[in-house]
């Protein structure tokens, strides 16, 4: 879901990059640049790049403010923030195999530890997380550069372009490597997932809709006190059959 939203946001940024201030000269007034020059060069650039470039409707504004670049960087920042959250989830789910969740496992890419034989670290997820951190740092630099413009001119464009290109290159390479060596090598540990589900008490929420809050609370306390699964206690208390309880959880 998050990936789909990120893709949509990236596509929406394209329009902002197609409006260029070529020919605006120093402050956007087109001093010493003829309209014919602007028209011809913009057309040539569009042909060479295969992009539908066009002259900005307000050259003065486009020279003073670098909104198009801050928009791109902001979208990359959102994408990276979503990546960090997603990767943190995967790292938690892969923790273990016994002391953690152990719901999934990454393929081994390198020796995990010099003192713990057999340790497998989620190195690809850690790599891409660091890439995302760098993109967030690059965005901060771009924001500072955007603010540093004075009156009609912003001379901080070199650092803006350097950081945007770096963010794009890092994400392109990082995402490709993670997809190949991380995402595609993930394995679901079904037995562990089933074990965690059986031990979970989350089903009490669904049960309370059937037997009421107070009775459900009592069942939960008995389940914990007797060190049983919720399923076992529901059946033992003759509240419903195992089949009916499983159906309740599925619904």
Q: Which features would summarize this protein structure in a list?
A:
mainly alpha, Ribonucleotide Reductase Protein R1, domain 1, Fumarase C, Chain A, domain 2
Word description of this protein:
There is one protein chain. The protein has 251 residues and is mainly alpha-helical. The chain has three domains: 1-63, no CATH class; 65-189, Fumarase C, Chain A, domain 2 (Up-down Bundle); 200-250, Ribonucleotide Reductase Protein R1, domain 1. The protein is built from eleven helices and four strands, in the order H-E-H-E-H-H-E-H-H-E-H-H-H-H-H. Helix 1 runs antiparallel to helix 4 (67-93), helix 4 packs parallel to helix 6 and helix 8 crosses helix 9 (213-225). The mean pLDDT is 91.
Any idea what the shape is?
A: elongated
Oligomeric state: single chain
Just name the CATH architecture of the largest domain. Up-down Bundle
Number of domains as seen in the coordinates: 3
Percentage beta strand: under 5%
Summing up helix and strand content along with how strands pair, one would put the structural category as mainly alpha
The CATH class designation of the largest domain is Mainly Alpha
List the helices and strands and how they pair.
Layout: H1 2-18, E1 19-20, H2 35-49, E2 54-55, H3 59-64, H4 67-93, E3 104-105, H5 123-147, H6 157-181, E4 187-188, H7 190-199, H8 203-211, H9 213-225, H10 230-236, H11 242-250
Parallel strand pairs: 1-2
Antiparallel strand pairs: 3-4
């Amino acid at each position: 879901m998050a990936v789909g939203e990120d893709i949509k946001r990236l596509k929406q940024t394209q329009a902002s990059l197609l409006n260029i201030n070529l020919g605006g000269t120093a402050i956007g007034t087109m001093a010493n640049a003829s309209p014919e020059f602007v028209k011809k060069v913009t057309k040539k650039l569009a042909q060479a790049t295969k992009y539908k470039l066009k002259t900005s409707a307000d050259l003065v504004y486009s020279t003073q403010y670098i909104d198009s670049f801050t928009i791109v960087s902001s979208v990359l920042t959102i994408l990276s923030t979503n990546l960090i959250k997603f990767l943190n989830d995967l790292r938690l789910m892969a923790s273990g195999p016994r002391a953690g969740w152990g719901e999934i496992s990454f393929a081994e890419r390198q020796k995990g530890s010099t003192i713990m034989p057999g340790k497998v670290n989620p190195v690809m997820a850690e790599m891409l997380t660091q890439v995302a951190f760098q993109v967030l740092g690059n965005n901060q630099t771009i924001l500072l550069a955007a603010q540093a413009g004075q009156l009609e001119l912003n001379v901080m464009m070199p650092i803006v372009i350097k950081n945007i290109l770096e963010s794009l290159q890092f994400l392109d390479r990082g995402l490709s490597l993670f997809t190949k060596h991380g995402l595609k090598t993930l394995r679901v540990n079904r037995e562990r997932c089933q074990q965690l589900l059986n031990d979970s008490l989350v089903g009490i929420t669904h049960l309370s809709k059937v037997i009421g809050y107070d009775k459900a609370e009592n069942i939960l306390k008995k389940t914990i006190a007797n060190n049983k699964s919720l399923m076992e206690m529901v059946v033992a208390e003759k509240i419903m059959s195992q089949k009916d309880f499983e159906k309740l959880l599925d619904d």
